[in-house]
Amino acid sequence: MISQHLLSYLIFTPVVAALVLLALPNSFKDYYKWIALGVSGVQVLLLFIVFSSYNPGEFEGFHLLEEITWIDLNGLKVEYLVGIDGISLPLVALSVIVLLIAVISSWNVSDRPKGYFTLLLILNGAVIGSFCALDLLLFYLFFEFMLLPMYFLIGIWGGPRREYASIKFFLYTLLGSLLILLVIIGVYMSSYNGTFDLLELLSGEGNLANSVFDRVTPRMILGWPARNWAFLFLLIGFGIKLPMVPLHTWLPDAHVEASTPISVVLAALLLKVGAYGLFRVGYWLFPAEAASMSTLVAFLGMLSIVYGAMNALASKDFKRMIAYSSVSHMGFVLLGLASFTVEGLAGAMFQMTSHGIISAMLFLIAGVLYDRTGDRTIANYSGLASKMPVYTSFVLVGFFAALGLPGLSGFIGEIMVFLGAFRSDYIPGWIAVLSTAGLIFGAGYCLWTIQRMFFGPYAVRSEGLMQDLSMREKIMLLPLAILILLLGIFPQLLLQYINPATNLMVKIFGDHLN
Amino acid sequence: MQQITEQQYLQWLARLLPFLLPELLLVLTAVLIIFCSFWKKINGAVFFITLAGIIAHVAVLILSLSNVGYYERADDFLVFDLFSGYFKILVSVAAILTVVMSGRQKKMEYYFLLLTILLGADLLMASHHYIMILLSIEMMSIPSYILVAGLGPDKARAEAGWKFFLFGSVATAIMIFGMTYLFGATGVSFLESQSFTYAAQTHPTMFVVGGLMTLAGLFFKMTVAPFHLWAPDVYESVPSPIAAFLSVVPKLAGLFMVAKLLFTMNNEAQQLIDWSAVVAGFAMLSIIVGTLGAIGQTNARRMMAYSTIAHAGFLLTILATQVSSDPRPVELAIFYSIVFLTMNYATFMVIQVREERGGSVLYQDFGGMGYTAPISAVAITIAMVSLTGLPPVGGFMAKLLVFTELWKKMTAVKNPVFLALLVIGLLSTVASLFFYLKIPFYMYFRRSERTEPIKIPLLTNLLLLFLVALLLAQFIVPRVFELGY
User: Fold this and answer.
1) Looking at beta carbons, which residues of chain A come within 8 Å of B437?
2) I need a labelling partner for B265 at 20 to 30 A (CA). Which of A376, A401, B310, B351 fits?
3) Are residues B389 and B395 in contact, defined by beta-carbon separation less than 8 angstroms?
4) What is the Cα B112 distance to its own chain's centre?
C-alpha cells in the first residue's frame, strides 16, 4: 500500500505539515521546529523504503511511477506523473538529508518561527517534487513553487542587504523560468498527442507536422531553427538557476544575505534543480540541438569553472568565497553534460550529489563562524586550529573535498567529468585543457583560505566567544563528512544507480544523433 | 412591412419575458429602493433590498441558463445566449461583492447608481443592434460618471469625474461616428456577418475606419491603451468598492462586445483586413503601457489601475487568438474573467481595510500589516501572486492558457505580431513581478510603529478567505471554473 504512493508521500508530507503548522496558534511556537524535524524524520524513513524497493538491475527507466490526470482544461491536459530513475534518486536522497540538516541548523530561529518553518516545509515539498516530476508542466510548477518561499526566506530572515538580494534572486529566476515556460508550451503544441508527459515526449516530441518544433522540417525564427532557439532558451533559463557564468550574479548576493540554513538549501538543492532541469528537459527533448551547441555549453562550463574559482580566490568574505566556489563546481556539471559520453554524464550527475554534500558542509562551516562573531571577513581570523580543533578537522574535510583530493567525493565527480570531456567528440580539446586550470585555482583558494584562517598564530579581530563546536553542530557536520568520505572511497554506492540511467540516456542520444 | 397584430405582439412578449426577467428584477429593485428612501424608518432596508434584488437576479439567471437550449432572439435588438448569460452572472457577482464591501452606510443614490450600471452592463451583453449597444453603454457610463464625481465637495473626485466624463463622452461620440460608418457600409443596423463581408468588398475604407472607431469606443470602457488615460485618476479617487466595480464590470461588458463585434467582422469570407491582428496590436500596446506605467507608481490604487490596463491587454489577447469557429478562446475569456474578478476584488478589499484605518494607500502605508492583519496580508499576497501569473493560483492557469492559445494562433497564422505579443506577454510577466511584490514586500519586510493587531470585521475576513480559496481552487481544480459554451 505504502509503496504505491511512496513518492507522493515524500512530496506531500511537508506540504500537509505546513498547513497544520499554519493552523496552530502562536502558543505552540516552541513546537514548530519539532514538527519540521518530525517531517524530515518521516522523510528519512520513506527514503529507506524507497531505496529498499528500488532495484537498479530490475529494469531500465523509471521506478515507483504514479499517474493521475490532473487538469483537463480548455484542451490542455496535465498529468500528475511522478517517478524516479538512477539520476533523480540520488538527488531525492540528497534533498531529504540536506533538508533534515537545514531544520537542525534552523533550531535557534526565534524570529517569527511560524512563517519560517511553514516556508521551509513548502520549499521541502517543492524541491523533492521537482526531482520526481515527469510531467513537464508539473515539473515547471514545482520549479516555480520554490521561488516564493525562497524569496521570503531570504528577504525576511536574511542579512542587512536581504531586500536587494531577494528581489534580485526572484527577478533573475523568474525571467529564466518564463523562458522555460515558453519552450514547454511549444513542446506541448508540437507533440503529436498534445502532451506534457516526458516519457511520451521522448519519442513523440516534435512529431506534429508543420508545428514550430517539427523535427523533420525545422521552422526558422530570425534565420535560426526554432529548435535551436528552444535549447538556447532552456540553457539560459536553467543556466540562471545553475548558475552559469555570466548569469550567476544573483548567487553571491543571495548567498551572502541568506541565513545559514537557507544558504545550505540554496547551494545544495536549488542549484541542482537547475542542472537537473537542464538535463531532464533540455538534453532529453533536444539532444541533437544540445549536441550541436555542445561547444557553447562546454565553453560556458569552462568559464564558470575558471571564473568562479578566480572570484573565489579574490573574495574577502568567507561566505562569498564559498558561493563562488559553488559557481566553479557547478561548471563541472555543464562540462560533463556537454561531453555526451557515459563518463561525462555520470560524472556530472555524481558531481551534483557530491557538490550538494560539500556545499552544504561549507556553508554550515561558514555559519559556525558567523554565529560566534557575526563577522565573515577572512582577514579577521587566523590560527583558529589551535582554539577549535574539532571545527578545523571538519573544515579540512570540507575544503579538501572541494579542491578534489583523491579519496573524497569531489575527486570522483571531477575526474569522471574530465575523462568524459577529453574523450568527447563534441568538446574541442582546448576547452577541456583550459578547464583544468579550475583545479589549480580551486586548490589555490582552498589551501590559501585554510592557511590564512586556521593556521599561524591565533588572532581574532572581532567580538565573540570562540569555542569549539557544540553538539548540535557536530550532529549536522558529521553525517556530511561521513558521506563525503564514503562516496570518495566507494563511489559505486552512487554509481550503481547513476550508471544504468546514463547508459540508457547515451544510447537514446546516439539514436537521435545518427 | 407586414402588420403585426396585437395578439402576435403579446405572444412575442410572453416568449421574451422569461429571458428579460433577470433585468426586470433589477429595474424592480431600483424602483423599490427609491420608494424605500422616502421613509426614514425603512431607510436601512435599502442595503438589504439591493442585495436581495441582485441575488434574485443571479438566481433567476442561473436557473434559466441551466435550461437546455437557452437561446432567444428578439428581432434584431437583443440576443440571449449562454455566452452572454455567463458574463451577466460574472458582473452580477461583482455587483454583489461591491454592495457587501460598501456596507450599510451608503445613501440610496449609491445603490441606485450601482444597479443602473449593472443593468446597463447586462443589457449590453444582450445587445445586437447599434442603438441597443449605444443605449446600454450610456446606461452604464452616465451613472458611473456620477458615482466617480461623487455627491460631496471632494476636489480630487470631482476632477477625476470630469476627466472620466470628458473622455467618456468623446469616446462615445467616436463610437457613434464609427457605427454610422458601419451602418452606411453594411446597410444594416445590427451585427450580421454577411453584410460585413459585403461591406468589405464594396466600401473597404468605410468598413475599416468605422470598425476601428467602434472598437475605440469599446476600448475606452475596457481601459485599453491608448484609451486608458482616465483610469489612474478615477481609481485613485473613488472608494474601494467602486474602484473594484469599475475595474471589473465595464471591462467585462466591453470585452464581451468587442468579442461579438470581432467575431462578426472577422468571418472567413472577409479577406480585407485581419481584425484579430489589429486587436493583437492594441493588446500589445496595452500590456506595454500597463506594465511600464505600473512600475513607477507609489500608490497601490494607481498601480492597480495600470495593472488592469495590462490585464485588459491579456483579455484582448484571448480574443485575438480566435481561429474561425473554435469556441475555446471564448471559454478561456470566461475563465480569465473569473480569475480577474477574484483577484481584483481581493486586492481592493485589502486596500479598503487599509484605507479605513488611515487614508492613504501608498506602498509604505502597508508596512507591517503582515503582523498586524495576517489574513489581509496573506490575501493580498496571494492576489498579487495571481496578478503576476505565478503558481499556485488561478492567475497562473489563466496566463498559461493565454500563452498556449497564442502559440496555437502563431502556428496557424504566420503573422509576426502574434510572436511579438507572446514575447511581450512573457516579458511583462517578469517586469510586473517587480511592482506586484511591492505591497507584500512592505507588509512583511518592513515593520510599522504600530504592532497591535488591526481589528477587522469578521465578514471581511471571511470574504477574503473565500476569495483566496477561490484563487487556489482555480489552480487546483480549474475544471470547475470552465464553463462550456
Assistant:
1) 151, 167, 170
2) B310
3) yes
4) 19
Task: Tell me the ipTM for this assembly.
Answer: 0.85
Asked if B441's CB is within 8 angstroms of A171's CB, the reply is: no
In whole angstroms, what is the distance from residue A304 CA to residue A172 CA? 17
| Inter-helix orientation angle A492-513/A342-373, to 10° | 130
End-to-end CA distance of chain A: 44
- Note the pTM of the prediction, 2 decimals: 0.90
Q: In angstroms, what separates the C-alpha of B469 from chain A's closest C-alpha? A: 14
Residues of chain B found within 8 Å of residue A123, distances taken between Cβ atoms:
none
C-alpha cell recorded at residue A412: 570522483
Identify the helix (H) or strand (E) that includes residue A367. helix A342-373
Would you list which residues of chain A are within 8 Å, Cβ to Cβ, of chain B? 71-76, 112, 137, 141, 144-145, 147-148, 151-152, 155-156, 162-163, 167, 170-171, 174-175, 178-179, 181-182, 185-186, 188-189, 210-212, 221
CA distance B218 to B137: 9
CB contact under 8 A, B404 and A188: yes
Q: Residue B241 corresponds to which cell in the numbers above? A: 468598492
Probe site for chain B from A11, A148, A150, A220 (most B CB atoms < 10 A): A148
In angstroms, rounded to a whole number, what is the distance separating the alpha carbons of residues B142 and B168? Answer: 9
The tens-digit pLDDT sequence of chain B (485 residues) is 567 788 888 888 888 888 889 999 999 999 998 888 888 777 778 889 999 999 999 999 998 888 777 777 777 788 888 888 899 999 999 999 999 998 877 788 889 999 999 999 999 998 989 999 999 999 999 999 998 887 777 788 888 888 899 999 999 999 999 999 999 988 888 888 888 888 888 888 888 999 999 999 999 989 998 888 889 989 988 889 999 999 999 999 999 999 888 888 877 666 778 888 899 999 999 999 999 999 989 999 999 999 999 999 999 999 988 766 666 778 889 999 999 999 999 999 999 988 887 777 888 888 888 888 888 999 999 999 999 998 889 999 999 999 988 888 888 887 888 889 998 999 999 899 889 988 888 888 877 666 677 788 888 999 999 999 999 999 988 888 877 65
Residue to substitute from B384, B408, B437, B476, interface A, most A β-carbons within 10 A: B437
What residue has cell string 507588509? B443
Q: What angle do CA A282, A285, A290 make, to 5 degrees?
A: 55
Burial class from Cβ neighbours inside 10 Å (0-12, 13-18, 19+) for residue B449 reads exposed
